[in-house]
Amino acid sequence: MVDTPTLASRESPFLVEYYIHGRGNGHNARSIAIIDRLNEAGVDVRMFIGRASLWKAFRESRKQEDSASIHPDGSLSTSDADKPKPGVTTAISVTSITPSLSYPSAVSHILERIMGDCEVAAQTGRYPDLVITDGDLPGMLRAKLGGLPSVAISHGQTFAISQKPVWIANSRQLGRAWDAEAKLNARAGYWTDWQIATNFVEMETRVDTGVVARAPMRPEVHSMAVARLKRKTGSTKHDEQKEITKQDIAVSNLVLYGSTTPEPNSPMIYPLDKNANRRKLVICYFRDKNGEVATNVLLGAGFDVLLFDKGYSTFGGKDNSSFGSKWIINRSKRKKHKTDTREREIDQEVESARGVLESTLPPAQLIRVKDMSLFAPLLSVADGVVSSAGSQLISECIYANVPLFALYKEDDYEQMLNVEMSRHIRQGGGAVYGTSFEQFRDAFRGSSSGSGVIAVEDVVFRLTKGAKRSLAEFRKFADLVNEGTVSTKYLGDLLSSVQSNTRPNATSVLSKIDLSSKEITQLEQDRFYGMPDAAAVIMEIIKEESIKRSRTT
Predict the structure, then answer these.
(1) Residue 524 — φ and ψ, nearest 5°?
(2) CA distance readout (Å), 500 to 263, 271, 272, 496
(3) Rounded distance, CA 268 to CA 330, Å?
(4) How many CB atoms neighbour CB 282 within 10 A?
(5) β-strand partners of 18
(6) Beta bridge partners of residue 329, listed in sequence order
(7) Is residue 304 within 8 Å of residue 281, measured between CB atoms?
(8) Is the distance from CB of 489 to CB of 231 less than 8 angstroms?
(9) 41 or 507, which is more confident
(10) Which residues, in sequence order, are CB contacts of 315 under 8 Å at separation 6+?
């Protein structure tokens, strides 16, 4: 039997049951940022999470943060005088519904989830005052059957509650994709009282109960953005009072030696000379573990790659020294009518893509990272990101002004629309480029088997229109990465204390949040054109429900 809340525990803190879908990192990153702000405001949270390992990773990352805290309205404070007693979060691991489940299996799973989730409340004697569901269908049904007020929050709600932009409606392909996503995501919010769509683009809603808000940023993302800003402007200084953390050491080891725990006599990737040239640093993360081609292209273009690869195949083997070593130009299939002028254009295309490969730098490095808690710290020292086109990472890159090249599968309508929205409405921060995996493979028909060779066959003649656009987008992204100074400045900081041939000491990665609350708020408004913060919207809902609760006691 589905539980109904009683008044027995009305003197206890406000309790939110928060349901988080397990696919991808975006649901988790967004939800954890909101939960932190709820706890800061004295709200208890009972979290049902589909990927408990990510919760652990984010908590490990949080342990490295400064004592500065972020209030629900986005302001900062380090004073305890005006803080309520922090709320407590309990994490419960559950299994999320995925597209791979058959209809009977999905129905059975939903029923088991609802009964099990309700049993938790019965056993503890505490019933929720509000249910929040981030893409989790059982969470919405649990609230409906229990007669509980509820909020649906996700990026997918953008398509369910927003007015379709004219430029999307005028495109047959994009219009069809929008309609499909609207139908899909409407289910997760159909029986909820409020709907919050997190997005990086401001949009009008077509329902009175919905709002489009910017995704909340975790404290470590704030720190990362500040650290990048300081490195770009050359205003970084080693903070003698900031303790060097395990994360600082892990990041420096990865950048210098290619491993978080190098052997004592491990050689450095680059010489100790502070003035020596170094390759630019690009982070890669692919939700569906399908980034082999993109990773090879980056290595072939002369970038060092930090690949978050938990669950990846071991393409490239153990010896990564061959990556990025050369390009092959295969003209064997060229047609006879192609002129010498066009062939020269082809050579120019290849030379442009090849970049710095003719330099005397060591081969481009593929550095594998399995610890997700290092994502934000590494982002603070990287020059760009290539990843799946998830909305949360796009928002974080826009916020921190990180060049991003986003890839999506052609049948993934949500991620396709993410790239098109970022392309159509260029935001104030961060340059977002992207294309489909399929078109990217057409543009760079290379080896993903680990040979380290990218084959460029008739670069101009053979490309489809979509592949040519992919190549143009990648060039723009690559140019921005090559212009970047963030990794160079970080390496300079690492090597600043080097004497003779001694090894460098680790330096702090994430900057202290020493910007004022006004500056932080202004930074967000500049990036997202003053869109409301999703966490602040939820806090307003909780205030309303708290007033209703007080009237019933």
Answers:
(1) -65, -40
(2) 20, 12, 9, 11
(3) 35
(4) 29
(5) 47, 132
(6) 456
(7) yes
(8) yes
(9) 41
(10) 292, 295, 448, 449, 450
| φ/ψ bin of 91: left (φ > 0), alpha (ψ from -120 to 50), beta (otherwise) | beta
For every residue of 45-77, DSSP letters joined together read: EEEEES-HHHHHHHHHHHTTS-S-EE-TTS-EE
Please say whether the beta carbons of 57 and 372 come within 8 A. Answer: yes
DSSP state of 504: P
Please state, in angstroms and rounded to a whole number, the distance separating the CA atoms of residues 198 and 30: 9
How far is it, in rounded angstroms, from Cα 465 to Cα 468?
5
411-439 pLDDT tens trace:
999 999 999 998 876 544 458 999 999 99
CA distance 192 to 136: 12
Q: End-to-end CA distance of the chain, in Å?
A: 25
Contact status, residue 302 vs residue 451, Cβ threshold 8 Å: no
Q: Please name every residue paired with 304 in a beta bridge, in sequence order, or none if there are none.
A: 281
**How far apart are alpha carbons 327 and 457 in whole angstroms?**
10
d(CA 268, CA 271): 7
- Output phi, psi for 430, to 5 deg: 70, 135
Q: List, in sequence order, the alpha helices (H) in 510-533.
A: 517-528
Q: Give the mean model confidence (pLDDT) for residues 333-346.
A: 44
Type and span of the H or E element at 115:
helix 103-124
Return the higher-pLDDT residue of 486 and 511: 486
pLDDT in tens, 149-207: 999 999 999 999 999 999 999 999 999 999 999 998 998 899 999 999 999 988 999 99
The 3-state DSSP class for residue 304 equals: strand
- Distance, C-alpha 223 to centroid of its chain: 15
The amino acid present at 43, given as its one-letter code, is V
Prediction pTM value: 0.79
**Beta 76-77 vs 69-70: how paired, if at all?**
antiparallel
Please state, in angstroms and rounded to a whole number, the distance separating the CA atoms of residues 448 and 39: 45
Residue with tokens 């972020």: 70
Rounded CA separation 188/183 (Å): 10
- The rounded percent of the chain whose pLDDT value lies above 70 is 69
Contacts of 532 (CB under 8 A, 6+ apart): 211, 213, 214
Residue linked to tokens 């539980």: 3
Please, are residues 301 and 355 in contact by the beta-carbon 8 Å criterion?
yes
Query: Crossing angle for the helix pair 465-483 and 340-354, nearest 10 degrees?
Result: 40
The 10 Å Cβ neighbour count of residue 432 is 26
Strands 432-436 and 194-198: unpaired
Q: In sequence order, what DSSP letters do the residues of 439-467 get, joined into one string? A: HHHHH-----SS--EEEEESTTTS--HHH
Output the six-digit token pair for 297: 């292209």
For the range 227-233, what are the long-range contacts, defined as Cβ-Cβ under 8 Å and sequence gap of 24 or more? 227/380, 227/381, 227/509, 227/510, 227/511, 228/379, 228/380, 228/400, 228/401, 228/402, 228/486, 229/401, 230/511, 231/380, 231/381, 231/485, 231/486, 231/489, 231/490, 232/401, 232/485, 232/486, 232/489
Q: Please state the length of the chain.
A: 553
Long-range contacts of 231-240 (CB under 8 A, 24+ apart): 231/380, 231/381, 231/485, 231/486, 231/489, 231/490, 232/401, 232/485, 232/486, 232/489, 234/489, 236/489, 236/493, 236/511, 238/493, 238/496, 238/507, 238/508, 239/508, 239/512
Q: What pLDDT, in 10s, does the model give residues 75-104? A: 334 344 456 788 998 888 877 766 666 767
219-233 vs 486-495: helix crossing angle, rounded to 10 = 80
